[in-house]
Write a structure and sequence with these properties.
The protein is α/β, with parallel strands linked by helices. A 6-stranded parallel β-sheet has the order 3-2-4-5-1-6, with helices on both faces. The protein has one domain (7-152): P-loop containing nucleotide triphosphate hydrolases (Rossmann fold, 3-Layer(aba) Sandwich). The chain is globular. It is 36% helix and 18% strand. The protein contains 6 helices and 6 strands. The protein binds adenosine-5'-triphosphate (ATP) and magnesium ion (MG). Magnesium ion (MG) is lined by residues 17-18, 107, 137. Adenosine-5'-triphosphate binds next to helix 1.
Length: 174
């Protein structure tokens, strides 16, 4: 058995895609390495996410929240595409920086699914040999992305409190 830097995909309708990525971030930091999270879709104005607060406190963790909020509700598709491209530029910069052992491209699958980001751009970038782990999260991951990944997990929604009218909660959801 050998080791290899991994392309990891967390997709599916159930909760836990971003949370599981954060678990890997936590492990990476605990071992003394640096990690970064680049966030599509999510905006710094949505919630004060726990992960963003942690990044303020930890020199080893960087977070770049680049989204415009829940942009699929935003009819301005041109703007969504511009924002996704800027976020993608940040993903590439962070990934190639040499600083990080693990990077999370959070909600990138959504951005591709909604047509804000071209999947071919991502596939082409992932062709090169990269010396770090990359975690791509979000529903509706493209088959082509899952095909080139080393590890793909699909979260299944069995039950979610939202369906019982319970709203997102600090510490659990944000
Ligand atoms: P988390 O960030 O909690 O790990 P996630 O990344 O799996 O969730 P997203 O699709 O990014 O899921 O959804 C973000 C928000 O939507 C979270 O607050 C999450 O709790 C909520 N959510 C996730 N799955 C469901 C679901 N099946 N029904 C309703 N809300 C959900
Ligand atoms: Mg998520």
């Amino acid at each position: 058995m050998k080791t290899k830097k991994l392309i990891i995909v967390h997709t599916g309708e159930g909760k836990g895609k971003t949370t599981a990525a954060l678990g890997m971030v936590m492990r990476t930091l605990a071992h003394g390495w640096h990690a970064a999270i680049v966030q599509f879709i999510k905006s710094a104005e949505d919630y004060k996410y726990g992960e963003a607060k942690l990044a303020e406190q930890m020199e080893q963790l960087d977070i770049f929240t680049m989204g415009d909020g829940f942009t699929w509700n935003n009819p301005d598709k041109e703007k969504n595409i511009r924002t996704a491209l800027e976020t993608w530029e940040k993903c590439k910069e962070v990934t190639l920086s040499g600083k990080y052992r693990l990077v999370v491209w959070d909600e990138i699958n959504y951005a591709i699914h909604y047509g804000f980001l071209d999947e071919q751009l991502v596939l082409d970038f992932l062709q090169q040999s990269l010396d770090l782990h990359i975690v791509m999260t979000g529903r509706y991951a493209k088959p082509s992305i899952m095909e080139i990944a080393d590890l793909v997990t699909e979260m299944t929604n069995v039950k979610h409190p939202y369906q019982a009218g319970i709203k997102a909660q600090k510490g659990v959801d944000w």
